[in-house]
Amino acid sequence: MHNRTILGLLLLAIVGMLSIELMIATPVFGHANHERSIPAPNAELDTAPSKVTIWFSETIEPNFSEITVLDNLGVSVDLNDSYVDSNDRTVMSVSLSDLQDGTYTVVWKNLSTVDGHILRGAYIFAVGQPIANQAGVVTDEEPLIISPFDPILRWFLLLGGLLMLGVGLFRLFIVSLRSNDQYQSSYVQYIRSHYDSSEVLLSLAGAVIFIVASVAQLLAQTSILYEASVLHVIGTPMVLFALETQWGNLWLWRVGLALVFVLTLYLHKITSKQSHGILRPVLLVVLVFCAAGSMLPLSLTSHGAALRSLVIPAVVTDYIHLLAASLWVGGLICLMFIVVSIVKFGDQAESRKYLAKLVSRFSLVAICSVLILIITGLFSAWAQITVVNALMTPYGFALLIKLALFAVLLILGSIHLIWLRKRIDSVRPVTRLIKNILVLEVSVATILLLCVGFMTSLEPARQTASKLGLANNSNFTMNDLVDGSEIEFAVNPAVTGINDFVIKITDDKSGGIGPEATVDVSLVYANMDLGAETLSASFDKLGVYRLENQLLGLSGEWQANIVVRQPGAFDVRTAFRFDIQPGDENRNAMIEPNAENGRLFWGIEICLIGFILVVLALPLGGWGTRKGVLSMAIGSILFCCGMFILVTSNALSGASEEVLINPILPTSDSVESGFMLYQSNCAACHGDSGTGIGPLTTELKVPAANLIEHVPLHSDADLYDYISEGINGTEMPSFGEVLSSKDIWNVINYIKTFKETE
Fold it and tell me: What tens digit of pLDDT does each residue of 173-186 get?
C-alpha cells in the first residue's frame, strides 16, 4: 500500500504541474527556420519582384503557413495567394502586386510538419532606393527556450513511455511468466506477487503520465497556433489541429495506442490467475506492442525526422535508441522494486538466490542495451552535430551533459556487474547496498531524461552552427605535389558571393614560375550541371597567380581544375575540391550531414546491433528458449538488413543522386593513365587526337564521334554511361567489363583535354 500511495502522490503532482502548464502556456521554440529567400533579407532591388519565395529548414503545413508583404504604412501589397510548393514543402511563396519604390517588410509564419511548432519571422527589402531608416535584419531569432515547460513535457513523455515499454520488456526478457521450479517456496512467491502488483501500478503510472503529457502538448501547440488561451482552443480548434496536421495525426496515433495499452493492462490484471493459460502471454505481447507503437511517433517528430537526406536512417536510429533505453532504464526501475520488496519483507537466502538469478540475467541484457545505446547515440550525435564547432552550441552543451550522466550510469552499472553480482547470494548486507545503488541509478537516469527533454526542445546543433557561421571555411587552402611542382590553392572567404582564388606554384628548379606561364582555372559545381568556363589567372608575383572577384552563387561542393602551361615544359594538371558555405544573406541555411557517409554508417550500425542481439540469444538459451529464439530472429534479420544497406549503399546513392562530376580528380597522373587506356581501347576508331578519324574509320558503318565536338556537350555521368554501356545504334561497344570504374573516369579526364590541345 505504501508504494501505491507514493505513486498516487506522484501522479497527482504531475497532473498539477501539467495543469499549470495549460494555464500559462507560451510559445515554444520552433525549428522550421528561414534558410534563404528571394528577395534576400536586406536586398536593395532595381526592379520590383513579382513574388516572394522563402525556403525553410523543414517541411511545413500548407493550411497553417502564410506570407504577408507590407509597405511602410503597414498595408498589405501581396495578392493574398500564399501557398506551399506541392513538390517541395519546404518552399512557400506569395505573389505581389505592382510595387512602387520603397521599403517593404515580409512577414511570415509556418507550422512545422516535423515537430508541430509554429514559427514567425520578418525581414526587409527595398525597391528602387536604399532601405529606409531601418536595419533590414531577419527577425526570426527567438529566445533559446521561451517556455520552460516544454522540456518538462517532453521529459514526462519520455518517462511515461519508458515505463510503459520498459516494464513489459523486463517481464518479457528478464522475468518468466511461469514460475521456475527452483523458486517455488511460499516466501519467493509472496515477493513475486508483491512485485506483480507494483509492476501493474508502474505500467499504469507510465500510461497516465504519457497520456496527460500528450494532451498538455496538444493544447499548448493549438494555443500557440491560434494565438489564444488554452480554454479557448478546447474543442474545434484542437480537433482541427489534430486532424489536419501531420503532427496531429501522429499525436492521435500515440495517444490511441496508449489508451489501448491501458485497456489491455486491465485485461492483463484481471486474468492474472491464469498463469498457465495462453491469454496472459498474448496480452503481454499486445502490451509491449502498444507501448512500442506509442513511442514511434516520438521518433517521427524528432530532430532526426528533419534530416532531409537521411530521414529513414535517423528516425530508425532514434527509435532503436528509445527501445534500448526503455529496456535499460525500465529494467532498472523494475529491478529496484523487486529489491525493495525483498528488503521490506525480510532478506532470506532463497530470496537472494532468486535475486542473483534476476540480476545476472538483467546485467547481460543491460550490457547489450548499453552497447546499442552507444552505437545509435554516436550516429545521432554525428547527424545532429555534423561539425565539431557545433559542440559550442546549447544543443552541444546539453549533449555533453547527457554524456557525463551516461558515464555515471555506466560506473554504477559496473559496480553491479563486477562486484555485487557475484556476492548477492552469499553476503546478506549486499541486498540493501544493491537497493541503494539502484535508487541512485534510477535517480541519475531520471535526470538524464530531463536533459534529453531539454535537448529535444533545443534547435539542432548543426542549424544553430549555420546561423552563427561556426562552420564557415575562411581562407580555404589545399596543397598538391605534381611532377616536382608544389601547387597551393586558396579560396577566400569560401562562402557564397564574391570569392578570390590564389594559386601558388613552386618549382624545384626556379623556385617559382614567372609571368611567361599560363595558369587556367575552370570551376565546376558538384550538385548541378552549370557548365565550366575556363578562366586565366593573372600573374601577381613570382610563383603566385590570382583569379579575383569570382561569383559563386551556390553553396555546396565545388571543383577547381587547374592547368599550368610553361614554354618548353609539359603541362601540369591538378584539381581541388572545396566546400562553399552560405554567405551572410543565407546564413540560416542548415548544415546537412553527408548522405553517402550516413548510409554507410547506418549500415554498419544495423549490422552491429543485429550481431549484439544474436550474441545475446546464446546465454538466453539460443534456439531452445522463446527468449533466445526471439533475440536470435530479430538479430539475424537486422544483421541481414545492415549487410544489404552496406552492399547497396553505392547503388542507392547513385540512384538517388546523379553523379554530375568525375569522382577522380583530373590530375596529371589521371590524365596520363587515361591517355594510355585511350590509346589501347579508343584511338583505333576515334583517332589519336579524338577527331573521329582512326585506322578503323573506313570499316565503321556509323562514323565514330568527333570527341573534340561531342565531349563538351555531355556531362561526366553521360560520358561514363556511353563508355561503360556502349551506344545503341552505333558500333560503340561496352567497356564496362573491360575497364574498371576508375579506368573509365581516367579516360574521361583525358578526352576532356582534347579541346585544349587542338
Answer: 777 544 444 545 56
